[in-house]
Amino acid sequence: MSGDERDRQAEQTGSGSRRPGGAAAVTKAVIPVAGLGTRFLPATKATPKEMLPVVDKPAIQYVVEEAVEAGLSDVLLVTGRNKDAIENHFDRAWELEAALEKKGDEHRLRRVQKSQVLGDIHYVRQGDPRGLGHAVLCGAQHVGNEAFAVMLGDDLIDQRDPLLPAMLDVQKRYGGSVIALIEVDPAQINMYGCAAVEPAEDDVMRVSDLVEKPEPASAPSNLAIIGRYVLHPAVFDVLRETPPGRGGEIQLTDALKTLAGRPADEGGGVHAVVFRGRRYDTGDRLDYLRTTVSLASERSDLGADFRAFLREFVASLPPETDGDDTRSGS
């Protein structure tokens, strides 16, 4: 399809504002939230892990706020069974609002109302849990023939260190797709997707290869993929042809590897932004606790008292000894 044909199709589908040169501005974000959250059982038996609070907001709200602040006001949540609480959170709560209004509690009323006016939020179900690539593919009909962002809820990006605007700018300049990378301890690269790169400019890299969770000895770098992507719509056709990879799932990393080797006029080319800002991981229990403590410590309304408590609490702890913990988390 030619550039003119793409522009005509985008106009017919109402793709939004235009960038210089006729390309459509990126306005859509796809956020997969269909995971089972098994690392947090039994808390996630009836509550989606994305609804677990980070201080006093569910984790998913941080991600949606980040999308909207970056100009991505059209948000598609790819959900699954037992995720109704997410839809309810972004919907009106008439009884609660009426009760708060009657009490004159304007502060909490505004905070409750914020989640329902963040953006234009849509939902689609991922019927079978077939991996991140399949979850992204579930958004094909909604996204259409436009570049779009994918945001994973396990990664929270500090609003003081915005990442998405930089990625959107790289996609605007280079086209193709853009991923976010961080430097990690080489011994831990087997926990991530990994990129082989060559410099393009400053913290922008050109990606030549991608490997999902490589062994440290064979990893092409210590640059790990984190949960922010800006993708060319050509990724949908690639995902349809991508066989199950690691873990028997359709891996987004495998599709991006294919796109990295394709010419630009076929939607190919992958660039990367190396992120050096503050990122919080909520993907397992320990990282979730670290995230909550970090953010609570910096809150203007809680931080001073909470930091004082932490100092006193840590000072009161007995010296560590192996095997001394008698309180099981099971």
From TrEMBL:
It comes from the Bacteria. Belongs to the UDPGP type 2 family. GO terms for biological process: UDP-alpha-D-glucose metabolic process. Residues 14-24 have a biased composition (Low complexity). InterPro entries: GalU_uridylyltTrfase_bac/arc, NTP_transferase_dom, Nucleotide-diphossugar_trans. Pfam families: NTP_transferase. Coiled coil: none annotated. This is UTP--glucose-1-phosphate uridylyltransferase. It comes from Haloactinopolyspora alba. It catalyses: alpha-D-glucose 1-phosphate + UTP + H(+) = UDP-alpha-D-glucose + diphosphate. Residues 28-292 form the Nucleotidyl transferase domain. One of its GO terms (molecular function) is UTP:glucose-1-phosphate uridylyltransferase activity. Its EC number is 2.7.7.9.
